[in-house]
């Protein structure tokens, strides 16, 4: 990536204000950076150089740089330039001043359908752009969706795990965050090839979380274990949390969280879905045959009203975790350094 590297050093062009730390991840720390010539604010992601690198950090970084440099879309976080300094590699990124979608969900508990729709129109457009260029993100989660203003403008960020893949190429490396990984990643022997469909699955998990505030798959909520829940595509729309959410949203989630990647909705199809376009949801407009459509709608109804026992269990778990959280706050326990507690 030398051609993208700026001449001179970071401090010739930028300064980091006091209290400018935005957070840190596994490999990098992110600060606000002010461009001296314009006063424009950016984010600078600093990857420390390690004398003995295990290879992962550096490789991930080069991948991230290559991918970020090749994309230009309003809903994909943009890389402005890079500096290779003695103490680290500095990536100058667009600043997402409102932080992570993760924090917004935590703050509000959940989002309304309209708020979520606004986000999804952008996210799907960003993802369509990436998928058209054969870029698979592979690590979509609310922490990697950044907000740039208070009007819910959002961008897909953190391409540390992304890879530009050829249409026919495949990879079997296990990656992603457990709660968001697609079933085919957990069953590599059955389907060694995984592609764009994994992003749709992860975005489906995020959609579910936006609308109710808790994840569809979780070790904490109910047996079986997380991997089996995902592999079986076993999730529910427990009452009362889902009572006020419309069938169109549930239909889209079902189509995104379809275990068979070949059957899963694509980004182009999702952009046409009535929930996304906010057109009246008419199941008859669905691409399903009548018979499978009837089955699908029946399945939705059954899943909305599943066993009382499971609902109570989930409600208890949610309550317990709220109590645990407030207890933690009272105890003054330290937060995870990058503020990224699992939802
Ligand atoms: P990893 O998954 O590799 O550990 P990460 O996603 O945890 O990485 P970073 O991407 O290094 O962490 O980001 C660290 C923190 O900085 C996060 O809290 C993130 O929200 C914040 N951040 C990252 N990029 C930006 C940006 N462009 N604008 C504002 N905040 C950002």
UniProtKB/TrEMBL annotation:
It comes from the Eukaryota. Residues 321-343 are annotated as: Disordered. GO terms for molecular function: ATP binding; protein kinase activity. Keywords: ATP-binding, Nucleotide-binding. Residues 16-276 form the Protein kinase domain. ATP binds at residue 45. Belongs to the protein kinase superfamily. CAMK Ser/Thr protein kinase family. CHEK2 subfamily. This is Pkinase-domain-containing protein. It comes from Orbilia ellipsospora.
